[in-house]
Amino acid sequence: MSALRDTAARPMGLRRAAQGLAAPLPPLLVEASHLAANVQLGEHGRRRSGMGSEFWQYRPAHSGDEARFIDWRRSARSDQTFVREREWQAVQSVHLWVDGSRSMEFAGDRNRPAKGARARLLALALAVLMIRAGERVGLSEPASPPRAGEVQLMRLAHVLSTAQTPQDYGAPAPLALLPGARAVFLSDFLGPLDPVEAALARAADLGVRGVMVQILDPVEESFPFDGRAIFESMAGTLRHETLKAGNLRARYLDRMAERRARLTALAARAGWVFSTHHTDQAAQSALLWLYAALRER
């Protein structure tokens, strides 16, 4: 009878132990880890040629290649000479900036996440992938130096879950960027663009390459309003009332297109890449794109 009781109790005890172990984990980290686990990157998702000890690939030898890099055994099996390339193993530092302003709290539908929630999820899921690949990740605001390890993931999850500002719109702070590092800016970029331009210029001066992702709710793209409407910023500092909202649609869409064109140009000038993600789209596809884009920086 005691053996039967032990067998029956074991699953319950295991479940309680698992729940106790997971209890301290911030919900954001649990969700981000789940999202990262669904992204199939392969064993060497970020491989590139460089200095290291791990074999990566053979490539045809070019004029200027040193003789010591030629793999004579592989070359003997062909009429062509081949070089043995090694995998890049230098640890990189990645800075994340996630807009915590009130504007990011907007969601056009209760069935969609707020822009800020999606930005935080993407940022932390990217950190999971980077840190588990052996790289260092930190925040540029609030300043948290890039570090490696699972403890850093806990630290980032805590900060991202609590770091918000009362301002209507946010702007990246480039003061904490390390020279030669990489960076990711996640925002709706609906505020003044001069601070964004200054941050990208500072990053370019430091040799920092990166990715800008504009996160918008579909409502902000389509402007589906008509008739009487009251538009108010999330912090309540801006307010506009109109009886003919439909008459504003064409001008609004033109201004959005102009803003996106300027953001694209600013990113290109700094050697960055720019993209837009909508909160009704799958977070997994955005993470895949973001990871691939950052890999090329």
TrEMBL record:
InterPro entries this protein is in? DUF58 (IPR002881)
Where on the tree of life does the source sit, at the highest rank?
Bacteria
Please state every residue range assigned to the domain named DUF58: 57-261
Its protein name is Uncharacterized protein DUF58
* Organism expressing this protein natively: Albidovulum inexpectatum
